[in-house]
Amino acid sequence: MKRNNVLPEAFEITNGYPALEAVSKIYDELDYQRAVQSYLWAMPAVACYSFIQGLKRDYQADMYTVNIWQKSATPVTRVLTGNSQSIYAVGYFDLAETGPMVLEFPPNVLGMIDDLWYAPVSDVGIAGPDKGKGGKYLILPPGYQGETPDGYFTFTSTTNLNIWLVRGFKGQDGSSPVASLKKMQFYPLDRAEDRPQMTYKLVSDIPADLTFPTDERFFEAMGAIFSQEAVRDRDMAYLGMLQSLGIEHGKPFAPDDRLQAIFKKAAATGEAMARTLSFSSRNPNKNPYPDRQWEWIFLTDRPDFYAANYLDIEARVSYTFQACFTANAMVVQLVGAGSQYLAAFKDSRGEWLDGAKLYKLTLPPDVPVENFWSLMVYSSETRSMVVTDTHKAGVDSYGRVRANEDGSINLYVGPEPPPGMESNWVKTNADEGFFVYLRFFGPKQAFFDKTWVPGDLEPVSALQADL
Fold it and tell me: In this structure, are residues 90 and 163 in contact, taking their beta carbons and an 8 Å threshold?
């Protein structure tokens, strides 16, 4: 007897059995589906691993290298939604090699230490336990059972590979943020008296690609990660699915032609799903303003994307496909401290932002920030800064932005600026889509209670622009 169901004919069940000639096709479908879902699940780990590989490859960095974007990140650095206003330093460490690791941060920095899944191990600096006074952070490997000394801010990571990022500020004496960032010291706990040589490298002008592959190479990265990284109980179900795909702890990754074909197809499907989740989320809480196109970057209340009863994988994919690094300070409402982020992928009419068109964004008077605001423009293809002949991917309140008589500010994004508005304009490429981030550093109460609301990006032409 054949079952009358919705299965494809090749998958039909007869007398309780699949057709013998269909068995291999059913396994192909099973492995393809597992590969697609694993692609979405593993995205943070692959993204972080690829970032670290980029540091090693393009900056020749090791665990004791402090890579400093001394002029902030620039379009020569392909990094997911980086900003060109802040002076950052970044690096990594591997607890499988070092054992317990000490990271000494100077006063007056702001940043985070993340595990391989871009989940916070700890905030550091102003929003961390040292409260901006500087301090020693001791990071323990997964499952560490040894003694822990006093005098440290001590945390246990869930992974061996970890990554850190800190932003520097000018000193009270006016000294450069770079001078402060060069005071960082990292060393294994058991080498406190024989510390490795630190290297401080200025990297703003060094071309680098710190993004992750979205094609079948994604699975190569998964193979490298999960053959070596510590096994976590929370991951066992997905690791079981990966085992059937030839990705297993302690074993080399050597897919045959059949799996390679599945990975190629699964990566294309996974990328399409990730782009949809990232640029057109179905999360009902994505919009901070009911009559605007702006969306929250974080779609959960926690930077590790856990809700009360589940892990929100869609929210994690939405964030990880377009951004990197997380910190508690990014989701906690800290009035006058921390930072908040809004994204826009569509114009005021609900259509995708198009690099061939000119748009106007109006910021009402008195943008509610203690520190500064910035508007950054990113390629929707690379999710990195737009690369144009202006070498400029954003505008901010530190720059010479022209304000209107009432204090409001008109910003323009498009292939050509309105006459006289070059200072308020970011150029786009006519052959690609783009999206924007509006960042608030030190947001004031008016941001949180929404008494101040930014305008949408409105399509205009240079002749129609309201100057």
Answer: yes
Query: Read out DSSP for 194-253?
Result: SPPPPEEEE-TTS-EE-S---STHHHHHHHHHHTTSPP-GGGHHHHHHHHTTT--TTS--
Residue with tokens 């066992």: 236
Strand 199-202 relative to strand 65-69, pairing: parallel
Tokens of 467: 């100057």
Please give the class, per CATH, of domain 295-460.
Answer: mainly beta
Domain 17-44+213-279 class, CATH top level: mainly alpha
CATH topology of domain 60-209: Immunoglobulin-like (2.60.40)
Which residues have C-beta within 8 Å of that of residue 59, sequence separation ≥ 6?
65, 67, 201, 203, 206, 208
Q: What number of helices (H) and strands (E) belong to the chain?
A: 9, 23
Are the C-beta atoms of residues 324 and 51 closer than 8 Å to each other?
yes
| Range(s) within the chain of domains with CATH label 1.10.3360.10 | 17-44+213-279
pLDDT digits (tens, 9 = 90+) for 345-356: 999 999 999 999
Q: Which of 10, 5, 37 is nearest to 25 (CA)?
A: 10
Contact (CB, 8 A) for 197 and 181: no
State the pLDDT confidence band at 169, using cuts at 50, 70 and 90. confident
The model's pLDDT over 79-120, given as tens digits with 9 standing for 90+, comes to: 999 988 789 999 999 999 999 999 999 999 999 999 999 999
Amino acid present at 24:
S
Put simply, whether the predicted model's pTM sits higher than 0.85 gets the answer yes
